[in-house]
Amino acid sequence: MDAWGNSGAESTIHGLLTAIALDAHPDVRERAVALTEVTDREGLSFVEAEDAVSTTGEIDTPESWSGESSWSGDRLTLSRGDSAVFDLAGTGGNRWVEPVVWSEVRERTASTWRAGRLPLGSLQLTGPAQGISPTAGAMHPHTLTRALPKGEDRLRVDVSRGDLQLDGLLVRPIVSRLELGGDGEGMLLVHSAARTPQRVSVGAGDVSVYDVRGREVRVRPGGGTVTLPAGGFAIVER
Questions:
Q1: Which of 189, 120, 106, 184 is nearest to 148 (CA)?
Q2: Secondary structure letter of residue 196 according to DSSP
């Protein structure tokens, strides 16, 4: 297993650690293996940069393997004075947007992002120094300062410095949901990516609420509406 070769080592390790934890807690394991079906999900989505509804930039196909990370399809390069507009319709309510950018070593770029007249933030980026990676440069997601509000589906970027090399946009709901079912049982996981507490309707069930560090902060039998701490989550047992 090559941990430096992007061969899935981290995923394998987390899977093995999960198996060890379940073996140590048979009651939790029994519950986990009974939930075999995803009945509902609202979570992370990805919008390809080349799918911009309009742009003055250039679309091309880079090498799929950079030595550090892979491009998901084509690349959109926006130079100074260029712009692009993306349609995020159908990706949910209030959302964080994280542009995924390839940055060369010491390369500086500046871009401004907005939804209609609402500014969502500016990215002032400088490419990191080369470390142990065989490739000079790195691809990273960068979270915008403000969330895209519900009802706003168009996102515009304008570049004022350098060449912004954009792979795509990660779109993350303020509150993500995953509902599991199987053998007549059900469980709902809701997670908040908000920076303030969020009121969330979870339906019927016994609710355990946890803070951003995974510490249980309250239990509420019967379900209904609960308040998630900033960055926290809740588990609802049906």
A1: 120
A2: S
Q: Enter the tokens of residue 34.
A: 């009974």
pTM of the model: 0.84
| One-letter identity of residue 48 | E
User: Which CATH number among 2.60.120.260, 3.40.30.10, 3.30.360.10, 3.40.50.720 corresponds to the domain 45-172?
Assistant: 2.60.120.260
pLDDT tens-digit series, residues 158-183: 999 999 999 999 999 999 999 999 88
- Residue 50 pLDDT class (50, 70, 90 cuts): very high
Domain spans of the chain, in order of start: 1-34, 45-172, 174-237
Other Cβ atoms closer than 10 A to 182: 14
Q: Give the SS3 label for residue 198.
A: strand
- Chain-centre distance for alpha carbon 32: 24
Full 3-state SS string of 118-187: EEEEEEEEECCCCCCCCCCCEEEECCCCCCECCCCCEEEEEEEECCEEEEEEEEEECEEEEEEEECCEEE
Give residue-wise pLDDT tens across range 2-41.
Answer: 334 455 688 899 899 999 999 999 988 888 888 899 999 9
Give me the sign of the Cα torsion angle 8, 13, 19, 22. Answer: negative
* Residues 1, 7: Cα–Cα separation, whole Å: 7
What fold is seen in the domain 174-237? Immunoglobulin-like (2.60.40)
Q: CA of 187: how far to CAs of 35, 58, 177, 184, in Å?
A: 8, 46, 11, 11
